[in-house]
Design brief:
271 residues, five-stranded parallel β-sheet, 31% helix, disordered N terminus
Length: 271
């Protein structure tokens, strides 16, 4: 089977201009991992995802991106997407009916089984995003991401559609677009053919429950600091041993939570 042409990959990044049922001849690549992003800022995509390796993979049709403009599903003449919080309070909340129309158009309605196509809401109250989650998303057929704005989203639509909440950390952004791009980047780089060298994803931080070991390259000496001699020895067994020791040391010092998890999984006892 021949690879999709690059022109198809370029077409796949175009934002949805109107509800999908009114579009004819929309180019989609069958069988390609797809990120559908529901957002009030469709022009923010692909953003950095259109650069470097992820951008090349997008143009080559290894994955596709479908920004969906939430404003198009708004209410009334001005296409309002939000309203004041029930019970009072500051800010505005994205309406359940508006978000539901966008989710329906993205192709995923209420369901109890979403292993093949997770629906995600980027939220500071969500489960922390990690490498294991990125691998799970990469193994799916694609993901639909809802980017929040204002004070959040009406809880009822999150419950109705079984939306999975994901967080990048204990901080608050002005919207979910930056978080969505980070999640997509972490996921897309795990797709076959994107990085070119599968070993790259196996040796980096978190792949084995540890932070990555230090990296060095030429020159051999820089400002009086030398590359550790073991890395120049050619003894691959000793190099791997050194890298493992360094990964354990750094993880123990910087991420005691990961270190504890690693010890639990491996049955280790050392501190």
């Amino acid at each position: 089977m021949s690879a999709p042409s690059k022109s198809h990959g370029r077409k796949s990044i175009s934002a949805t201009a109107k509800p999908r049922e009114l579009i004819t001849g929309a180019p989609e690549l069958a069988g390609v991992w797809t990120a559908r992003v529901i957002t009030l800022l469709p022009k923010a995509f692909p953003g950095v995802l259109g650069e470097s390796l992820t951008g090349k993979a997008l143009k080559d049709g290894l994955w596709q991106l479908e920004p969906i403009d939430l404003r198009l599903y708004g209410e009334g003449k001005h296409r309002n997407v939000d309203d004041t919080p029930a019970g009072g309070g500051a800010g505005m909340v994205l309406r359940a009916d508006v978000v539901a129309r966008a989710l329906d158009d993205a192709g995923r309605g209420p369901a109890t089984e979403r292993a093949g196509w997770p629906v995600i809401y980027l939220s500071p109250r969500g489960k922390p995003f990690d490498q294991a989650t990125a691998k799970r998303f990469a193994a799916a057929d694609g993901v639909t991401m809802l980017c929040g704005r204002f004070e959040g989203v009406d809880e009822r639509v999150l419950e109705e559609y079984g939306v999975e909440e994901i967080s990048l950390g204990d901080f608050v952004l002005t919207g979910g677009e930056i978080a969505a791009q980070a999640v997509i980047d972490a996921t897309v780089r795990l797709l076959p053919g994107v990085l070119g060298n599968a070993d790259s994803t196996e040796e980096e931080s978190f792949s084995h429950g540890l932070l990555e070991h230090p990296q060095y390259t030429r020159p051999a000496e820089w400002r009086g600091k030398e590359i550790p001699p073991v890395l120049l020895s050619g003894n691959h067994g000793e190099i791997e041993k050194w890298r493992q020791q360094q990964a354990e040391k750094i993880t123990q010092q910087r991420r005691p939570d990961l270190w504890a998890q690693h010890r639990d999984k491996t049955g280790g006892t050392k501190e």
